[in-house]
Write the structure tokens for this entry.
Amino acid sequence: MDPLADLLPAMRVHNAVYTRVEATAPWGIEFIPYHHVKFGIVLHGSAWINVAGDPTPVALHAGDCYLIPRGCAFTLRDQLDSSTQNFEELLHRIEARTLRYGGGGALTTIIGGRFIFAGPRYPALLDVLPELLHFKVTASELAAIQSTLQLLAAEIATPLLGSSLVLDRLADIFFVQTLRAYLGSGNGRDVQWFGAAADHHIGSALRMLHEQSARNWTVEALAASVNMSRSAFALRFKKFVGDAPMEYLARCRIQKATRLLRESTLPISQIADAIGYDSEASFNKAFKRLTGIPPGRYRATDRTEQT
């Protein structure tokens, strides 16, 4: 079985949007959150990337690629002390999909953009990946990825009969190419998510937990849904995922809760109900156990930081 072939039907890419950035030192760009996978490939030079919420910057060099699975806000800059400008404010300077920006010093070239999935947001399975995937692509992988980008650009520049279908298929290919490069880099062996999602039984269970996280699941019900015995399922799930099924479900629910607390004005009681808790008290207890603070304080702190 090809794991990617089994996984991708649940992760349908609708389109890929990208820009070639030719930045000269000093330079810095900040990117707002966007609910699709963000990506970048460093073709020349070097940069630092910082993902929102993570104080540790990561150095990028020629041949490095990054994926931000949940579209978090992030910054790119030539040096850690360089000032940044919002990418949205630079859009008017883009010509022929190329942004030339900076102070005239050393050049860094990055192709960056986002994968737009069918549906209102990124696939739920991406919730369990790290905030930032950073890896190096080989020369052959880079050539293949760039060829796909060139085909995308050609279809966009000269639309023909069936162009929308071709664009969707090319976007799928581009996403597979970058994901395959990550998995082939050696880092992928350390991501339990991939092995879990690629397993027929556990991958199906993960999809159900993410897509129906508010359901009153039990280990028995999950095992029955994937045609396994309770004991065999529990052992297999723990082996692949690292958490017991109900521990993983709790983590999945709290991840969704943090997003709702940040992005909505729903009362906490409604959030508790929406993610599957039968009372606000039980939700508060679970949230504090996994995050260290109650949901009300989390929401207040997050909004204070944004002002």
About this structure: The first strand starts at residue 13 and ends at 24. The radius of gyration is 21 Å. The domain at 3-190 is CATH 2.60.120.280 (Jelly Rolls).
